[in-house]
Amino acid sequence: MAFDSLFDFYDALTNPYTHPHETDFDWTAHIEIIKRWNSLQPESATARIALAGSYVNYAWFARGHGYSDTVSQNGWDLFTERFQVAKTALLEAARLKDKCPYWLELMQMIALAEGWDKPFEKEIFEKSTAFEPTYYHFYREYANYLQPKWYGEEGEAEAFAEQISDHVGGDDGDIIYFEIASLLACQCQSTKTSLDGLSWPRIQHGYIALRQHYGVSNLKMNRFALMAYSSDDRLDASNAFGAIGEDWDHTVWKNQQTFEDAKTWAASQ
Q1: Does residue 169 register a pLDDT over 90?
Q2: What are the sequence ranges of the domains in the chain?
């Protein structure tokens, strides 16, 4: 499960240094730098994967992360165009010697963007986990695909979380459960996230196992704090907020007021 450094490495390579407040100018400059790297190192799989990942993120920059009916036609056109460039770069990387789990994760993102049918999405997921079963991002990407807002049915992603975590078993299974739960537990336009269909005790066990075996980042502490708050677990929430301090994560809380309200609740009797 110790793959956060790989993800963080590519996250840094595939976004402008101004992320998450980048502009189109920032993206253009970033893409040119990555293209130059590719031209200087044509046999580098890392460079090709970084180019693909950059275009995936650039595509989401054009589309935005709102509901589909909020996306302009130009946004959709750029989204499709940039994902095609990303797919081409990935196929070029596949012909090179070095192989990397992040290549497979990007293919899962391609499958989501292009709306692959479930049997094909499941096939890429199974190939991914066979290549590296402890790279938990594969499980998060597949669970994301199974959400009703994409291509799944109500409760399907939650059922997958339980099934795959039971299959893996032990601490690693519980860690995977925590990781999937932290994806599924979205705020959904409210001040509290929904944990419907998820097991709070298993999320707790997964977080504890993750902390004991690999350590936890500030992002994961924030995710756990949000889920503890949503589960009305004041003790776990208070401990998590104590570790976070004022270093709240905008991707988790959306705004500082929501974070402060939850932190105040956790500190109350």
Answers
A1: yes
A2: 1-132, 153-269
